[in-house]
């Protein structure tokens, strides 16, 4: 399984520690609430809200270097509106790995 990493963050920040800290603060602040919105929408079976939550989360997936995860999230976002939940478990594993990774930063 693909693991979160700092490769994109490092290339984006190019050594600017202040920018890196701001970026990480935004991710650490927004990710938990966006993840909660996803799970609440999933529980309520609100397809539009699920898709919107996936859309927001997929950008953080990308920032944490999860290229395959981003592709899966994009596919899941498109399929969810057709009530296709086939990628939910894989997507949620990505969210779990991100949660654990963010604890280390």
From TrEMBL:
Annotated PROSITE patterns: HPT (PS50894)
A GO BP annotation: phosphorelay signal transduction system
Keyword Phosphoprotein: yes
SUPFAM superfamilies: Histidine-containing phosphotransfer domain, HPT domain
Entry-linked Pfam families: Hpt
Phosphohistidine sites (modified residues): 55
Alphabetized UniProt keyword annotations: Phosphoprotein
MF terms (GO), sorted A to Z: protein kinase activity
Domain HPt: from-to ranges: 16-105
UniProt-recorded name of the protein: HPt domain-containing protein
Organism: Nonlabens ulvanivorans (Persicivirga ulvanivorans)
Lineage: Bacteria, Pseudomonadati, Bacteroidota, Flavobacteriia, Flavobacteriales
């Amino acid at each position: 399984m693909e693991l979160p990493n700092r490769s994109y963050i490092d290339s984006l920040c190019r050594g600017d520690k202040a920018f890196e800290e701001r970026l990480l603060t935004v991710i650490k602040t927004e990710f938990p609430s966006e993840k909660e919105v996803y799970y609440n929408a999933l529980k309520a079976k609100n397809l539009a809200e699920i898709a919107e939550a996936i859309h927001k989360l997929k950008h953080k997936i990308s920032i944490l270097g999860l290229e395959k995860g981003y592709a899966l999230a994009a596919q899941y976002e498109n399929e969810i509106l057709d009530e296709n939940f086939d990628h939910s478990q894989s997507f949620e594993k990505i969210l779990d790995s991100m949660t654990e990774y963010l604890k280390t930063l």
